[in-house]
From TrEMBL:
Keywords: Membrane, Transmembrane, Transmembrane helix. The keyword Flavoprotein does not apply. Its main location: membrane. This is Major facilitator superfamily (MFS) profile domain-containing protein. The chain crosses the membrane at residues 17-38, 73-94, 106-126, 132-153, 165-186. Pfam families: Sugar_tr. Residues 25-192 form the Major facilitator superfamily (MFS) profile domain. It is found in: Membrane. InterPro entries: GLUT, MFS_dom, MFS_sugar_transport-like, MFS_trans_sf, Sugar/inositol_transpt, Sugar_transporter_CS. It is a multi-pass membrane protein.
């Protein structure tokens, strides 16, 4: 009797990898983990151009030429604000998941990417360096939320025998995002 129950339970927990499960895993990881890896590494290569933009816009707007030390501090803030945003996002996950669920949280957090990307993208047009910093903070909040929710969501939708495999998909996408950021940062490839 006990052996029959164990056999029934074993068939219930094993599942197979379907195209839809694989697509959801890759899309959820692509839209979150890869963006995290990309944003983590993307500011390394254009450091001198970011500092030059800050110098140029502060001189234009405030008629003040900042020294190299101030530009380094401003650039350091630009780099580190992403981590502060990530910490903020990770601290919000518990409440968001309770209120919206895992899938709802992922869908709603996607808006943060568009807001942060728009701020950074339009910063040159508006000639405002603080839009870059605000955009990196908001993108960091998205990354903090996503890096916590995506593994929970994938663990929830995956059969038990595939949870380990699907748990690796976000990590692979983080590495892929860092790689893409490094490749696109090569001056031989895209110049400035």
């Amino acid at each position: 009797m006990a052996e029959e129950l164990l056999k029934d339970d074993a068939t219930k927990i094993s599942g197979h990898l379907t195209w839809s499960l694989l697509a959801v895993a890759f899309l959820a990881s692509f839209g979150s983990s890869m963006l995290y890896g990309f944003n983590l590494a993307v500011v390394n290569s254009p450091a001198e151009y970011i500092k030059a933009f800050y110098n140029e816009t502060l001189t234009e707007r405030h008629h003040w030429t900042p020294d190299e030390h101030f530009l380094t501090i401003l650039y350091s803030l630009t780099v580190s604000i992403f981590a502060i945003g990530g910490m903020t996002g990770a601290l919000l996950v518990g409440r968001l998941v309770t209120k919206y669920g895992r899938k709802g949280t992922l869908v709603r957090a996607t808006m943060l990417v568009f807001i942060g990307g728009s701020l950074m993208g339009f910063s040159r047009w508006f000639r405002n360096p603080f839009m870059v910093i605000a955009g990196r903070f908001i993108t960091g909040v998205h990354s903090g939320i996503s890096l916590s929710v995506v593994p929970m969501y994938l663990g929830e939708i995956a059969p038990k025998n595939l949870r380990g495999f699907l748990g690796l998909v976000p990590s692979i996408h983080i590495c892929l995002g860092v790689f893409i950021a490094q490749v696109l940062g090569l001056s031989e490839l895209l110049g400035k």
